[in-house]
Amino acid sequence: MKRFVFFPLRLIWAFVVLVVVCVTWLVLFLVFLPFLLITALVGPKRNPSRESETVTPRQAADSEVPLIFDRRNDVSKLFGCNTRNVPYRWNLFSSRLDQIRKDVSTPHALDFGAGSLRDSYELARLGFCVTSVDLDPQVMQQYYCSYDWNAVRWPPTVFTQPLEKLQDEQSRFHLAIAFDVIEHLEDPSRYCRRIHSLLTDGGLFFSIVPNRRSLFERYFKRSIAKSRAKGISWTPGVPHLQFNTPAEWEELFAQSGFRILEHDMTIGFFVNDWTALVGLPLRVYVTPVLARLAALRRVKFNQVAFEEAFSPPWLMKRIDVLDQMFKKQLAPRFGWNLIVAMK
């Protein structure tokens, strides 16, 4: 009964929020318009992506197992990512990979929080002997079957137990990667110290972690605080639990025994916070109601496509140029940290 009483109120509120978002979008667009015209004329050009970045794994058969953070059809984060409707690319890690391959005949790599195995697949293609660590055997098996491992010399070893059970004497790695993983852990220092112990002397640790200053992270932090206060449980490994500034991430890695070699920022301030400013209200208040309405009327509704319509690629790419032009000044507010550390 409560559903029928409150749904009309939610529908009205969703309409109000949608109107506010549309007005906000228009105001932002008019404010940015002069800068967008300038970037169209004098903005820097991006470097073309490497051929290895565009490998598309084959899809496995559908399964009832839910696949979270599915990145099989995306570029490996060793080289970039496609997010906020912008094709980001970086070379922070690639030169280090080339050096490891030059120095070591059989390089060993640890992919911690391997998820969809996209980065494990890329490392294997580059000649690394990879150990992929994640905890759900069923999910990992489905992801594993998504790739053609005949194209690599050493298919990865999938390890689905706690990292502590990976024996030191059997696992000495020249490289460890943890992309979009550390922020999901209750005790990140413990895992970082464990990764440190598994690396050879001079071994490298590549990490990608978010910047707590972004609007998305501020929202995630508020959401997890409310869940904790109400005693609401969550699926382990899904929400962000750690919220640090770039300097605080460096300190965490340093306290775990690492020396920071290189630290860059990506996903620009304007792109990231524009998307959050218009996207979060839609995601919280509008799309759930529209999805419910569509279900009642038995019509299809793509929530992701609806939200992304407010941040179209042609606009986000122009705003990204603006981010790159002012990166020196805005870097502390960029969305992601790219970190290279050494044992």
Q: Could you characterize what this model shows?
A:
- The protein is α/β, with parallel strands linked by helices and 343 residues long.
- The protein has one domain (2-44, 81-342): Rossmann fold (3-Layer(aba) Sandwich).
- It contains eleven helices and nine strands.
- The chain has helices at 2-42, 94-103, 118-125, 137-144, 188-198, 215-230, 246-255, 269-297, 303-308, 313-325, 327-330; strands spanning 80-83, 86-89, 108-112, 129-133, 157-159, 173-179, 199-210, 259-266, 336-342.
- The strands form two sheets. It has a seven-stranded mixed β-sheet, sandwiched between helices. A two-stranded antiparallel ribbon has the order 1-2.
- It is globular and about 60 Å long.
Can you say what the CATH homologous superfamily is? Answer: Vaccinia Virus protein VP39
At CATH level 3, the topology is Rossmann fold
Q: Write the H/E string, N to C.
A: HEEHEHEHEEHEHHEHHHHE
Any idea what the radius of gyration is?
Answer: 22 Å
Q: How many strand units?
A: 9
Low-confidence stretches: none
CATH domain class? Alpha Beta
Q: What is the SS-derived class? A: alpha/beta
* Oligomer designation: single chain
CATH architectural group: 3-Layer(aba) Sandwich
Q: How can the largest sheet be summarized?
A: 7 strands, mixed
Strand order in the largest sheet: 5-4-3-6-7-9-8
Count of DSSP helices? Answer: 11
Shape: globular
What is the rounded distance between the termini?
A: 60 Å
* Strand portion: 15-25%
